[in-house]
Structure formats: structure tokens, C-alpha cells
């Protein structure tokens, strides 16, 4: 894809994590600070990607359960 604004969220977050742990921080901050920044960015991206799933799932859980039960019935 040519346009960065059309990237899916997963690609954007992967690029964000790769950029935060890359070499561009090497000259600016110390090794331990760089590792801390990278770990913080990874934690924030995990929370930001799972939060929408956790907020929507309780409302659509009954559809998942009914689909599983419908598929499990033999006969």
C-alpha cells in the first residue's frame, strides 16, 4: 500500500513497536532507558488493541454462544 493512513491497525502498531525499539533512539537515550521506552510502548499498544475487543464482546457474546451451540447439535 502506498498511503500510510490506509494501513490496518495491526500494521500501524507493528511499525510503531519496530520504530520504538529501533536504532533511532540509540544516540538520544541510554540503553536501559531505550529498553524501558520500548517496553512501555509495547504495553500501551497491547492495551489499546485489546480494549475495544473487551468492551464489545459482552454485547455480542450471545451470538457466539448460539452459533457454537447450533454447530454442535448433531442430527
Characterization of this structure:
The protein is mostly helical. Helix content is 72%, strand content 0%. It contains two helices and no strands. It is elongated, with a radius of gyration of 20 Å. The model has no long low-confidence stretch (mean pLDDT 79).
Unreliable stretches: none
Tell me, rounded to a whole number, the average pLDDT: 79
- Percent of residues in helices comes to over 70%
What is the element string, with H for helices and E for strands? HH
- Gross geometry: elongated
- Report the strand count: 0
Q: Mind summarizing the main beta sheet?
A: none
Radius of gyration: 20 Å
Structural category is mainly alpha
* Strand composition percent: under 5%
Measured between the Cα atoms of the first and last residue, the distance is: 47 Å
Number of helices: 2
Topology at a glance:
Layout: H1 9-20, H2 31-72
Helix pairs in contact: 1-2
Q: What features would you highlight for this structure?
A:
75 residues, mainly alpha, 2 helices, 0% strand
Can you summarize this structure?
72% of the residues lie in helices and 0% in strands. The chain is mainly alpha-helical. The longest helix has 42 residues, at 31-72.
Amino acid at each position: 500500500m502506498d498511503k500510510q493512513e490506509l494501513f490496518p491497525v495491526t500494521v500501524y502498531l507493528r511499525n510503531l513497536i519496530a520504530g520504538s525499539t529501533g536504532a533511532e533512539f540509540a544516540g538520544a537515550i541510554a540503553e536501559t532507558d531505550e529498553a524501558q521506552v520500548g517496553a512501555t510502548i509495547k504495553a500501551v499498544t497491547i492495551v489499546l488493541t485489546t480494549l475495544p475487543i473487551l468492551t464489545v464482546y459482552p454485547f455480542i457474546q450471545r451470538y457466539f454462544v448460539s452459533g457454537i451451540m447450533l454447530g454442535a447439535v448433531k442430527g
